[in-house]
């Protein structure tokens, strides 16, 4: 018996062309990049090619940017643009692009103006937090503190830590510490659990007095082995057996002290930071 032809297009394993994504800013572009990446991360099956264009300060620059954006257009792909440019004159030029344009200032700024009954002042300097000197200085001090107390390098002044991350090596302590310091102004120390620590379920002596500030990180043996292999391929340190043992012992220690635990294997640094801030009720410099 013959079957009628399937009207659906034949499936193909060939990936489509990557979608260009542009992050535009009058400053460093950190905000546009962070918010834009947060949005496109909701489309994990799509390939993206990212390009950041910061420090757009003049109309001439804005026109050149529009030319670059439109040059990335093809018949099959429309680039996506995330812009945090605040200057009205520059925004007007940038909005002339044929690309899909997400204005991170436009609509949101209008809403805030209506609520506050005050017009915004886009010319006010806001680079690196200069609009709030105290907040900026707090974040810089937090970064210095976190660098000094990275990976147990210094055990001085741990009483001044607002947060202490404990975990075996390569579970994500350092990037999470620095992100919390840079973005939230939190003074973070991190302490590596080594074999000697993991032979017991007692919290290591240097961090024991600060149990209420500790958050534990874990991972999966496969992921930890992969990360360690990038650093020391073929070593016992990176072996699946060693990673499995360390994580098992670490989790027993965490349970003994009822520490909050975050699995870094399936979370981004941004997600981990948000969970930590909520778990320990930290307010940071915001």
Structural summary, described in words:
Helix 6 (173-184) links the parallel strand 5 and strand 6. Helix 2 packs parallel to helix 3 (88-94), helix 6 (173-184) crosses helix 10 (269-279) and helix 8 (221-231) packs across helix 9 (240-257). Mean pLDDT is 86; it is low at 1-13 and 125-131. The strands form 2 sheets. A 4-stranded parallel sheet has the order 2-1-3-4, covered by helices on one side. The chain has helices at residues 30-40, 59-71, 88-94, 106-116, 133-148, 173-184, 195-198, 221-231, 240-257, 269-279; strands at residues 19-24, 48-53, 80-83, 100-103, 163-167, 188-192, 214-218, 261-263. The chain is α/β, with parallel strands linked by helices. 29% of the residues are buried. The protein has 2 domains: 19-128, Rossmann fold (3-Layer(aba) Sandwich); 132-279, Rossmann fold (3-Layer(aba) Sandwich), CATH 3.40.50.
List the main descriptive attributes of the protein structure presented here.
286 residues; Rossmann fold; 2 domains; disordered N terminus; 8 strands; protein serine/threonine kinase activity; four-stranded parallel sheet; alpha/beta; globular
The percent of residues in helical segments reads 25-40%
Order of helices and strands: EHEHEHEHHEHEHEHHEH
Number of strands: 8
Q: Helix count?
A: 10
Largest sheet: 4 strands, parallel
Level-1 CATH class name of the largest domain: Alpha Beta
Largest beta sheet: strand ordering: 2-1-3-4
């Amino acid at each position: 018996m013959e079957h009628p032809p399937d009207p659906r297009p034949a499936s193909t394993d060939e990936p489509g062309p990557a979608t260009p994504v542009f992050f535009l800013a009058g400053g460093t572009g950190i905000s546009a990049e962070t918010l834009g990446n947060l949005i496109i991360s909701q489309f994990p099956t799509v390939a993206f090619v990212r390009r950041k264009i910061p420090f757009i300060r003049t109309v001439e620059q804005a026109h050149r940017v529009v030319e670059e954006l439109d040059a990335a257009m093809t018949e099959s792909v429309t680039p996506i643009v995330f812009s945090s440019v605040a200057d009205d004159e520059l925004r007007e030029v940038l909005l002339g692009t044929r690309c899909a344009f997400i204005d991170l200032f436009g609509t949101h700024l209008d809403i805030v103006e209506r609520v506050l009954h005050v017009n915004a002042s886009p010319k006010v300097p806001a680079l690196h937090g200069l609009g709030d000197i105290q907040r900026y200085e707090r974040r810089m001090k937090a970064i210095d503190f976190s660098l000094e107390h990275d990976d147990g390098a210094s055990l001085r002044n741990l009483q001044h830590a607002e947060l202490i991350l404990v975990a075996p090596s390569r579970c994500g302590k350092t990037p999470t510490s620095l992100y919390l310091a840079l973005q939230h102004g939190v003074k973070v120390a991190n302490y590596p659990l080594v074999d000697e620590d993991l032979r017991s379920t007692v919290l290591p002596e240097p961090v024991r007095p600060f149990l209420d500030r500790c958050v534990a990180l874990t991972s999966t043996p496969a992921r930890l082995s992969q990360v360690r292999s990038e650093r020391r391929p073929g070593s016992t340190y990176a072996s699946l057996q060693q990673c499995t043992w360390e994580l098992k012992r670490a989790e027993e220690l965490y349970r003994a002290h009822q520490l909050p635990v975050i699995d870094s294997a399936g979370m981004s640094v941004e997600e981990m930071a948000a969970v930590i801030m909520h778990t320990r009720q930290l307010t940071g410099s915001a």
